[in-house]
Design a protein that fits this description.
35% of the residues lie in helices and 17% in strands. By secondary structure, it is α/β, with parallel strands linked by helices. It folds into 2 domains: 198 residues, D-Maltodextrin-Binding Protein, domain 2, CATH 3.40.190.10; 146 residues, D-Maltodextrin-Binding Protein, domain 2. Strands 6, 7, 8, 9, 10, 11, 12 and 13 form an 8-stranded mixed sheet that branches. Strands 2-1-3 form a 3-stranded parallel sheet. The longest helix is centred in the N-terminal third of the chain and has 15 residues. The chain is globular. 50% of the residues are buried. The N terminus is likely disordered.
Length: 371
Protein backbone atom coordinates (compact mmCIF):
# COMPACT_ATOMS: atom_id res chain seq x y z
CA UNK A 1 0.00 0.00 0.00
CA UNK A 2 1.42 3.37 -0.94
CA UNK A 3 1.93 6.07 1.66
CA UNK A 4 -0.81 8.06 -0.07
CA UNK A 5 -3.27 5.15 0.04
CA UNK A 6 -2.52 4.44 3.69
CA UNK A 7 -2.95 8.06 4.66
CA UNK A 8 -6.14 8.34 2.63
CA UNK A 9 -7.68 5.34 4.32
CA UNK A 10 -6.79 6.59 7.77
CA UNK A 11 -8.14 10.05 7.11
CA UNK A 12 -11.32 8.54 5.72
CA UNK A 13 -11.83 6.38 8.80
CA UNK A 14 -11.32 9.41 11.01
CA UNK A 15 -13.95 11.23 8.99
CA UNK A 16 -16.37 8.36 8.68
CA UNK A 17 -16.13 6.53 11.98
CA UNK A 18 -15.07 9.25 14.38
CA UNK A 19 -18.15 11.38 13.94
CA UNK A 20 -21.32 11.35 15.99
CA UNK A 21 -24.31 9.81 14.29
CA UNK A 22 -26.85 12.03 15.95
CA UNK A 23 -28.31 12.72 12.52
CA UNK A 24 -29.25 9.05 12.34
CA UNK A 25 -31.34 9.27 15.49
CA UNK A 26 -28.78 7.62 17.76
CA UNK A 27 -29.80 7.37 21.38
CA UNK A 28 -26.28 6.49 22.53
CA UNK A 29 -25.39 7.86 25.96
CA UNK A 30 -21.63 8.01 26.00
CA UNK A 31 -21.15 8.30 29.74
CA UNK A 32 -24.01 6.09 30.88
CA UNK A 33 -22.80 3.26 33.09
CA UNK A 34 -23.81 1.39 36.20
CA UNK A 35 -21.75 0.47 39.21
CA UNK A 36 -21.43 -3.10 37.91
CA UNK A 37 -19.91 -1.88 34.64
CA UNK A 38 -17.34 0.51 36.14
CA UNK A 39 -14.31 -1.73 36.62
CA UNK A 40 -11.26 0.47 36.22
CA UNK A 41 -7.68 -0.73 35.95
CA UNK A 42 -5.10 -0.55 38.72
CA UNK A 43 -2.07 -2.74 37.94
CA UNK A 44 -2.15 -4.58 34.64
CA UNK A 45 -2.40 -8.36 35.13
CA UNK A 46 0.25 -10.90 34.14
CA UNK A 47 -0.53 -14.36 32.72
CA UNK A 48 -1.12 -17.07 35.30
CA UNK A 49 -2.86 -19.78 33.29
CA UNK A 50 -6.54 -20.56 33.40
CA UNK A 51 -9.10 -20.19 30.63
CA UNK A 52 -10.46 -17.50 28.34
CA UNK A 53 -13.94 -17.78 26.83
CA UNK A 54 -14.21 -15.86 23.54
CA UNK A 55 -17.41 -15.12 21.61
CA UNK A 56 -16.58 -13.99 18.08
CA UNK A 57 -17.78 -13.94 14.51
CA UNK A 58 -17.29 -17.22 12.64
CA UNK A 59 -13.84 -17.71 11.10
CA UNK A 60 -12.56 -14.38 12.46
CA UNK A 61 -9.53 -15.53 14.49
CA UNK A 62 -6.60 -17.47 13.09
CA UNK A 63 -6.35 -20.80 14.93
CA UNK A 64 -2.57 -20.65 14.60
CA UNK A 65 -2.54 -17.31 16.41
CA UNK A 66 -4.80 -18.66 19.13
CA UNK A 67 -2.31 -21.50 19.61
CA UNK A 68 0.54 -19.00 19.78
CA UNK A 69 -1.32 -16.94 22.39
CA UNK A 70 -1.92 -20.09 24.42
CA UNK A 71 1.76 -21.06 24.16
CA UNK A 72 2.98 -17.60 25.16
CA UNK A 73 0.58 -17.07 28.07
CA UNK A 74 -0.46 -20.51 29.28
CA UNK A 75 -4.10 -19.39 28.92
CA UNK A 76 -6.47 -21.87 27.25
CA UNK A 77 -8.86 -20.26 24.75
CA UNK A 78 -12.38 -21.64 24.38
CA UNK A 79 -14.05 -20.16 21.28
CA UNK A 80 -17.75 -19.86 20.56
CA UNK A 81 -19.11 -18.11 17.45
CA UNK A 82 -22.09 -16.01 16.32
CA UNK A 83 -23.42 -15.10 12.89
CA UNK A 84 -24.68 -11.55 13.47
CA UNK A 85 -24.55 -8.68 15.96
CA UNK A 86 -28.20 -9.28 16.75
CA UNK A 87 -27.56 -12.93 17.61
CA UNK A 88 -24.75 -11.91 19.93
CA UNK A 89 -26.87 -9.20 21.58
CA UNK A 90 -29.77 -11.57 22.17
CA UNK A 91 -27.46 -14.02 23.91
CA UNK A 92 -26.02 -11.28 26.12
CA UNK A 93 -29.50 -10.03 26.99
CA UNK A 94 -30.61 -13.56 27.84
CA UNK A 95 -28.17 -13.51 30.75
CA UNK A 96 -25.22 -15.36 29.25
CA UNK A 97 -22.30 -14.56 31.57
CA UNK A 98 -19.78 -17.17 30.49
CA UNK A 99 -17.83 -15.04 28.00
CA UNK A 100 -14.71 -13.03 28.76
CA UNK A 101 -14.21 -11.27 25.39
CA UNK A 102 -16.77 -10.49 22.70
CA UNK A 103 -16.41 -8.86 19.26
CA UNK A 104 -19.33 -6.46 18.58
CA UNK A 105 -19.46 -3.95 15.74
CA UNK A 106 -19.49 -0.18 16.21
CA UNK A 107 -23.23 0.53 16.25
CA UNK A 108 -23.85 -2.53 18.43
CA UNK A 109 -21.40 -1.29 21.04
CA UNK A 110 -23.40 1.91 21.35
CA UNK A 111 -26.52 -0.17 21.96
CA UNK A 112 -24.81 -2.49 24.44
CA UNK A 113 -23.49 0.45 26.43
CA UNK A 114 -27.00 1.83 26.71
CA UNK A 115 -28.06 -1.55 28.09
CA UNK A 116 -25.12 -1.66 30.55
CA UNK A 117 -23.85 -4.93 29.08
CA UNK A 118 -20.18 -3.92 28.77
CA UNK A 119 -17.54 -3.27 31.42
CA UNK A 120 -15.60 -0.04 31.58
CA UNK A 121 -12.07 -1.44 31.87
CA UNK A 122 -10.32 1.73 30.66
CA UNK A 123 -8.79 0.13 27.58
CA UNK A 124 -6.91 3.38 26.94
CA UNK A 125 -4.74 2.54 29.95
CA UNK A 126 -3.67 -0.89 28.65
CA UNK A 127 0.07 -1.07 27.80
CA UNK A 128 -0.55 -1.62 24.08
CA UNK A 129 -3.24 1.05 23.81
CA UNK A 130 -0.46 3.40 22.65
CA UNK A 131 -0.71 1.51 19.36
CA UNK A 132 -4.33 2.46 18.65
CA UNK A 133 -4.52 4.64 15.55
CA UNK A 134 -5.24 8.22 16.66
CA UNK A 135 -8.36 8.43 14.51
CA UNK A 136 -9.69 5.30 16.21
CA UNK A 137 -9.51 6.69 19.75
CA UNK A 138 -12.40 9.13 19.99
CA UNK A 139 -14.96 7.11 18.08
CA UNK A 140 -18.68 7.73 18.52
CA UNK A 141 -19.36 4.33 20.06
CA UNK A 142 -16.63 4.64 22.71
CA UNK A 143 -15.00 8.08 23.09
CA UNK A 144 -11.56 7.70 24.67
CA UNK A 145 -11.68 3.90 24.45
CA UNK A 146 -12.96 3.03 27.91
CA UNK A 147 -14.94 -0.07 26.91
CA UNK A 148 -13.43 -1.38 23.69
CA UNK A 149 -10.28 -1.97 21.66
CA UNK A 150 -10.23 -1.91 17.85
CA UNK A 151 -10.10 -5.15 15.91
CA UNK A 152 -10.87 -5.32 12.16
CA UNK A 153 -12.47 -2.61 10.00
CA UNK A 154 -13.86 -2.57 6.49
CA UNK A 155 -16.75 -2.06 4.09
CA UNK A 156 -19.79 -3.96 2.85
CA UNK A 157 -20.20 -4.18 -0.92
CA UNK A 158 -20.97 -6.59 -3.74
CA UNK A 159 -18.77 -9.25 -5.28
CA UNK A 160 -19.40 -10.53 -8.78
CA UNK A 161 -18.09 -13.40 -10.89
CA UNK A 162 -17.76 -12.26 -14.53
CA UNK A 163 -19.05 -15.63 -15.72
CA UNK A 164 -22.46 -14.21 -14.76
CA UNK A 165 -23.75 -11.85 -17.48
CA UNK A 166 -25.38 -9.71 -14.78
CA UNK A 167 -21.97 -8.58 -13.55
CA UNK A 168 -21.57 -6.22 -16.48
CA UNK A 169 -24.54 -4.11 -15.36
CA UNK A 170 -24.32 -4.19 -11.55
CA UNK A 171 -22.98 -0.84 -10.38
CA UNK A 172 -25.33 -0.01 -7.50
CA UNK A 173 -27.48 -1.54 -4.77
CA UNK A 174 -30.50 -0.86 -6.97
CA UNK A 175 -28.88 -2.94 -9.72
CA UNK A 176 -28.15 -5.67 -7.18
CA UNK A 177 -31.68 -5.86 -5.76
CA UNK A 178 -33.20 -5.90 -9.25
CA UNK A 179 -30.74 -8.41 -10.68
CA UNK A 180 -32.10 -11.43 -12.51
CA UNK A 181 -29.08 -13.59 -11.67
CA UNK A 182 -30.18 -17.06 -10.54
CA UNK A 183 -27.12 -17.33 -8.32
CA UNK A 184 -27.44 -14.19 -6.21
CA UNK A 185 -26.92 -14.18 -2.44
CA UNK A 186 -27.40 -11.78 0.48
CA UNK A 187 -25.91 -11.56 3.96
CA UNK A 188 -27.88 -12.77 6.95
CA UNK A 189 -27.61 -9.30 8.47
CA UNK A 190 -30.60 -7.04 8.87
CA UNK A 191 -28.65 -3.80 9.20
CA UNK A 192 -26.65 -4.47 6.04
CA UNK A 193 -29.61 -5.67 3.99
CA UNK A 194 -32.12 -3.02 5.04
CA UNK A 195 -29.70 -0.09 4.88
CA UNK A 196 -28.66 -1.22 1.39
CA UNK A 197 -32.31 -1.46 0.34
CA UNK A 198 -32.94 2.05 1.69
CA UNK A 199 -29.98 3.35 -0.31
CA UNK A 200 -31.38 1.55 -3.37
CA UNK A 201 -34.72 3.37 -3.14
CA UNK A 202 -33.01 6.75 -2.88
CA UNK A 203 -32.53 7.34 0.85
CA UNK A 204 -29.40 9.40 1.50
CA UNK A 205 -26.63 8.14 3.76
CA UNK A 206 -27.46 10.81 6.34
CA UNK A 207 -31.08 9.55 6.49
CA UNK A 208 -30.50 5.81 6.95
CA UNK A 209 -32.11 6.09 10.37
CA UNK A 210 -35.15 7.88 8.98
CA UNK A 211 -38.44 7.61 10.82
CA UNK A 212 -40.38 8.13 7.58
CA UNK A 213 -42.29 4.88 7.28
CA UNK A 214 -42.93 5.50 3.58
CA UNK A 215 -39.23 4.88 2.94
CA UNK A 216 -39.44 1.50 4.67
CA UNK A 217 -42.49 0.60 2.57
CA UNK A 218 -40.42 1.34 -0.55
CA UNK A 219 -37.57 -0.79 0.76
CA UNK A 220 -40.01 -3.57 1.66
CA UNK A 221 -41.55 -3.51 -1.82
CA UNK A 222 -38.09 -3.74 -3.38
CA UNK A 223 -37.14 -6.67 -1.16
CA UNK A 224 -40.41 -8.50 -1.74
CA UNK A 225 -39.34 -9.26 -5.32
CA UNK A 226 -35.73 -10.06 -4.34
CA UNK A 227 -35.23 -13.80 -3.83
CA UNK A 228 -31.56 -14.53 -3.08
CA UNK A 229 -30.00 -17.33 -1.10
CA UNK A 230 -29.28 -16.14 2.44
CA UNK A 231 -25.63 -16.59 3.31
CA UNK A 232 -24.30 -17.05 6.84
CA UNK A 233 -21.35 -14.90 7.91
CA UNK A 234 -18.87 -17.70 7.16
CA UNK A 235 -20.54 -19.13 4.06
CA UNK A 236 -19.72 -16.71 1.26
CA UNK A 237 -16.19 -17.85 0.48
CA UNK A 238 -17.03 -21.46 -0.31
CA UNK A 239 -20.14 -20.50 -2.26
CA UNK A 240 -18.15 -18.14 -4.48
CA UNK A 241 -15.37 -20.63 -5.07
CA UNK A 242 -17.69 -23.49 -6.04
CA UNK A 243 -19.98 -21.24 -8.09
CA UNK A 244 -23.09 -21.60 -5.93
CA UNK A 245 -23.23 -17.80 -5.89
CA UNK A 246 -21.93 -15.56 -8.66
CA UNK A 247 -23.33 -12.30 -7.22
CA UNK A 248 -23.12 -11.74 -3.48
CA UNK A 249 -23.44 -9.03 -0.86
CA UNK A 250 -20.19 -9.36 1.06
CA UNK A 251 -17.78 -7.91 3.58
CA UNK A 252 -14.58 -6.75 1.91
CA UNK A 253 -12.23 -9.06 3.81
CA UNK A 254 -14.16 -12.11 2.72
CA UNK A 255 -14.06 -10.66 -0.80
CA UNK A 256 -10.27 -10.46 -0.50
CA UNK A 257 -10.04 -14.08 0.57
CA UNK A 258 -12.34 -15.17 -2.26
CA UNK A 259 -10.34 -13.22 -4.83
CA UNK A 260 -7.12 -14.86 -3.62
CA UNK A 261 -8.67 -18.17 -4.69
CA UNK A 262 -10.52 -16.86 -7.74
CA UNK A 263 -8.79 -13.70 -9.05
CA UNK A 264 -11.44 -12.84 -11.67
CA UNK A 265 -13.96 -11.96 -8.94
CA UNK A 266 -14.67 -8.23 -8.75
CA UNK A 267 -15.45 -6.25 -5.57
CA UNK A 268 -17.95 -3.47 -6.28
CA UNK A 269 -18.38 -0.29 -4.25
CA UNK A 270 -22.06 0.48 -5.05
CA UNK A 271 -22.63 3.94 -6.48
CA UNK A 272 -25.58 4.57 -4.14
CA UNK A 273 -23.45 4.15 -1.03
CA UNK A 274 -21.33 1.79 1.05
CA UNK A 275 -21.36 1.02 4.78
CA UNK A 276 -18.08 1.45 6.67
CA UNK A 277 -17.88 -0.61 9.85
CA UNK A 278 -15.41 -1.37 12.64
CA UNK A 279 -15.43 -4.49 14.81
CA UNK A 280 -14.08 -4.24 18.34
CA UNK A 281 -13.08 -6.27 21.37
CA UNK A 282 -15.02 -5.78 24.60
CA UNK A 283 -15.47 -7.41 27.99
CA UNK A 284 -19.09 -8.12 28.96
CA UNK A 285 -20.48 -7.56 32.42
CA UNK A 286 -20.14 -10.83 34.34
CA UNK A 287 -17.00 -12.04 32.54
CA UNK A 288 -15.62 -14.92 34.63
CA UNK A 289 -11.94 -14.09 34.06
CA UNK A 290 -11.38 -10.37 33.78
CA UNK A 291 -7.58 -10.59 33.98
CA UNK A 292 -7.27 -13.05 31.12
CA UNK A 293 -9.66 -10.93 29.05
CA UNK A 294 -7.42 -7.89 29.51
CA UNK A 295 -4.30 -9.91 28.66
CA UNK A 296 -5.90 -11.20 25.44
CA UNK A 297 -7.11 -7.78 24.30
CA UNK A 298 -3.74 -6.23 25.05
CA UNK A 299 -1.98 -9.05 23.16
CA UNK A 300 -4.08 -8.35 20.08
CA UNK A 301 -3.20 -4.66 20.20
CA UNK A 302 0.43 -5.57 19.47
CA UNK A 303 1.11 -4.59 15.82
CA UNK A 304 2.64 -7.94 14.90
CA UNK A 305 -0.18 -9.95 16.46
CA UNK A 306 -3.03 -7.94 14.94
CA UNK A 307 -1.27 -7.95 11.56
CA UNK A 308 -1.34 -11.75 11.62
CA UNK A 309 -5.10 -11.54 12.05
CA UNK A 310 -5.37 -9.06 9.17
CA UNK A 311 -3.37 -11.42 6.98
CA UNK A 312 -5.81 -14.19 7.92
CA UNK A 313 -9.10 -12.29 7.66
CA UNK A 314 -8.24 -9.96 4.77
CA UNK A 315 -9.29 -6.82 6.65
CA UNK A 316 -7.40 -3.74 7.78
CA UNK A 317 -7.22 -3.09 11.53
CA UNK A 318 -7.10 -0.20 13.99
CA UNK A 319 -3.50 -0.59 15.20
CA UNK A 320 -0.62 1.68 14.21
CA UNK A 321 2.46 -0.08 12.85
CA UNK A 322 0.64 -3.25 11.88
CA UNK A 323 1.04 -2.53 8.16
CA UNK A 324 4.75 -3.31 8.48
CA UNK A 325 3.77 -6.94 9.18
CA UNK A 326 0.85 -7.21 6.77
CA UNK A 327 1.11 -9.16 3.54
CA UNK A 328 1.47 -7.10 0.38
CA UNK A 329 -1.56 -8.74 -1.22
CA UNK A 330 -3.71 -7.49 1.67
CA UNK A 331 -2.29 -3.96 1.79
CA UNK A 332 -2.48 -3.53 -1.98
CA UNK A 333 -5.95 -4.94 -2.58
CA UNK A 334 -8.45 -2.21 -3.58
CA UNK A 335 -11.13 -4.26 -1.84
CA UNK A 336 -9.22 -3.78 1.43
CA UNK A 337 -7.94 -0.23 0.87
CA UNK A 338 -10.67 1.79 -0.92
CA UNK A 339 -9.45 3.67 -4.00
CA UNK A 340 -9.66 7.47 -3.90
CA UNK A 341 -12.48 7.60 -6.41
CA UNK A 342 -14.90 5.65 -4.16
CA UNK A 343 -14.20 7.40 -0.86
CA UNK A 344 -17.17 9.72 -1.28
CA UNK A 345 -19.53 6.74 -1.33
CA UNK A 346 -18.44 5.37 2.05
CA UNK A 347 -20.28 6.33 5.26
CA UNK A 348 -20.57 4.76 8.74
CA UNK A 349 -22.94 1.90 9.39
CA UNK A 350 -26.01 3.59 10.91
CA UNK A 351 -26.57 3.53 14.66
CA UNK A 352 -30.29 4.14 14.96
CA UNK A 353 -32.76 4.69 17.78
CA UNK A 354 -34.71 1.71 19.10
CA UNK A 355 -37.84 2.75 17.20
CA UNK A 356 -35.88 2.72 13.95
CA UNK A 357 -34.17 -0.57 14.81
CA UNK A 358 -37.65 -2.02 15.17
CA UNK A 359 -38.51 -0.81 11.66
CA UNK A 360 -35.35 -2.47 10.31
CA UNK A 361 -36.31 -5.70 12.08
CA UNK A 362 -39.86 -5.56 10.72
CA UNK A 363 -38.66 -5.11 7.14
CA UNK A 364 -36.02 -7.81 7.43
CA UNK A 365 -38.19 -10.46 9.10
CA UNK A 366 -41.09 -9.80 6.72
CA UNK A 367 -38.75 -10.30 3.79
CA UNK A 368 -36.95 -13.40 5.08
CA UNK A 369 -40.25 -15.05 6.03
CA UNK A 370 -41.19 -14.99 2.34
CA UNK A 371 -38.01 -16.63 1.05
Amino acid sequence: MSVFSSRLLRVSIATLLGISLAACGSSSTAGKTSASSETLNTAFPVPSGGELHVYNWTDYLDSNEISRFESETGIKVILDVFDSNETMLAKMQSGATGYDVIFPSDYMIAQMRELNLLQNVDVASFPNSVNIKPEMMNVYWDPGRKYTAPYMEGTTGIICDPVDPECARIKSWHDYFTSTSPKIGALKDQVEVVSAALRAVGVKATDLCTTDRAQYVKAQNLLNSFKPSIVESDGGLERLINGTNTVLQIWNGEAHRARSKKPDLTYIYPSDGVNQWADNMAIPVGAPDLDNAKIFINWLMDPKNIAAESNYTGYDNGITGSDAFMNADVKNDPAVVPPADVMGRITPTPNCSQDVRDLYTQVFTTWTSQL
